[in-house]
Design brief:
Radius of gyration: 15 Å
Mean pLDDT: 94
Number of strands: 6
CATH architecture: 3-Layer(aba) Sandwich
Order of helices and strands: EHEHEHEHHEEH
Strand content: 15-25%
CATH topology: Rossmann fold
Shape: globular
Strand order of the largest sheet: 2-1-3-4-5-6
Distance between the termini: 24 Å
Structural class: alpha/beta
Number of helices: 6
CATH class: Alpha Beta
Largest sheet: 6 strands, parallel
Length: about 210
């Protein structure tokens, strides 16, 4: 892919993280010719719902990338925040490649360790996840990839990161947090960002 034709990339972090978790990934992507943006979700500790955080993402991309298509990467909780943006806040019209990394698409048992609103939404069979699953097929209209590791001890069970749409890529990375730094995961991200654009729903840039 010609570097001049690459979409900008927006990175969305997970629970208790900040954008700093993407420092290495950002450096790697910039060296390969991508323009990269990231934001700090506030609060990131589960005290607010994931849809509340998704509105922060929507406001951020409207501010830094107005009327421009882009590619979206969400890590862990950030993958669900990003899914809500894509499926419920009009992101499907702008996002051309959507990558989630170790995200609890089907919930995680680890979410039972906290009763905070955002954690409740990440429990298996939560109303939030059931709502997104009703029309998850819409992700087929864009290039969607879920990257996950069977060795994950935060996403329980680890296979919860898989969705029956798009592409699921398994990498043998031993720790959840390493999924944003390990070269095996980065190779899968690079592959996903170089995939052809599939969307028939994109609106032309004005």
């Amino acid at each position: 892919m010609n570097t001049q034709s690459r979409n900008p990339v927006v990175l969305v972090h997970g629970i208790t993280d900040t954008a700093a978790i993407f420092n290495l990934m950002t450096t790697r992507l910039k060296k390969l010719g991508w323009t990269v943006y990231s934001l700090d979700l506030i609060p990131a500790n589960g005290d607010r719902t994931l849809d509340f955080l998704a509105h922060q993402l929507a406001d951020f991309v409207d501010r830094v990338l107005p009327n421009q298509p882009f590619d979206l990467i969400g890590f862990s909780m950030g993958g669900l925040v990003s899914r809500y943006y894509v499926q419920r806040l009009g992101g499907i019209k702008r996002v051309q490649r959507f990558v989630t990394i170790s995200s609890p698409h089907n919930g995680t048992l680890a979410a039972y360790l906290s009763a905070r609103p955002g954690c409740l939404q990440m429990r298996p069979q939560s109303a939030f996840l059931k709502d997104l699953d009703q029309d998850a097929a819409m992700l087929e209209a864009i290039n969607f990839t879920s990257i996950w590791t069977p060795l994950d001890t935060i996403i329980l069970p680890a296979r919860s990161s898989q969705l029956p749409v798009g592409q699921n890529i398994q990498v043998q990375v031993p720790l959840h947090a390493w999924m944003v730094t390990d070269s095996r995961a980065f190779d899968a991200i690079y592959q996903s960002l170089n995939a052809p654009i599939l969307s028939a729903l994109q609106e032309p840039t004005r």
